[in-house]
Amino acid sequence: MLDEERLTREESMIRRVAWVGGVAVTLVTAALLLPLLASATSGWQYPVYSALGGIPLAYGLFSSLVLFKMQVVLLHRHQAQLLMRVSELKEVASRDEMTGLHNRRHFYEVSEEELTRAQQRRDTLAILLMDLDGLKGINDEFGHGVGDIVITNLAAIISKHIRTTDVAARLGGDEFGVVMPGTDKRGAFALARRLWEEMERKPMYEDDETELMVTVSIGVAGYPWGGDSLDEMLHWADADMYANKMSRRLPEEPESPQELDDAGALIDDYALGN
User: Fold this and answer.
1) pTM for the complete prediction?
2) Angle 185-201/144-161 helices, nearest 10 degrees?
C-alpha cells in the first residue's frame, strides 16, 4: 500500500513538473516573441525572431519529453517491484510455516494443473500420499514439541529425495503429498522405496536419552494407470495408503492359518501395487 501511494505521488509530481514547465516556456516564449515580431521593420527579422523564439520552445518540449520518459521508467520500476512483492506473497501463502513445504491448497492446484497438462500431452503423472504412523502416541508420550520435530525431519527427507520438478506438500497434521509430473508407476514406487529405506536407518528424533524411529504409510496413484481425474487418483492413493497402514498393523503371529493367508495376500497386493 505504501509503495502504491508513493508511486502515485511521484507520478503526480513528475506530471505537474512536465505540464508547468511546458506551459511556462510557452508563455515566456510568446511574451518575448510577440513584441519582437510587432516591432520588426524588415522582412528578414521575422524568420530570425521566430527561430530565436523557437529555441526555448524546443527546449521546453524536449524537457517535457525527458520528464515523461522518466515517468515511464519510474512506473516500470515500481511495477517490477510490485510484481516481485506479489510473487513473494504468493510464495509465502503457498507454504506450510512449520515444514517449509507447500500447503494443501497449493498441492491441489498443482495436481489439477499437472493432470490437465499430462492429459493434453499424453504424458504420465504420479501422486504419492503418505501418513506418519503413530504421531499421536509420540505426542502423548514425548510432547507436541517432539512431534513437531519428527514432522519437520520427515519433510526434510521428502525434500531430499524429490526432483526439482516435483511438488511436495504438507496436507495437514501428519499427512503429506507429492506431485510427480512425467513419472510412471515404477518411478513413483521407487520414490516410496527411497523414503522407506532412509526412515528405516535414520531416527526422526534423538537426544541423549531418546531415539525415535518412525514409519510412514504410503499410497501411490497416477495417470493414466491410476484414474482419469484427480478425485479418482486421490481415492486410489488413499486406499493404497490405507492398505499399507493396515498391513503394518497386522499382528506378527496371526491366530489362525486363514488370518495368515489374509495378511500375506494384503501385503503381496501392496507390493505388487494392486
Assistant:
1) 0.63
2) 130
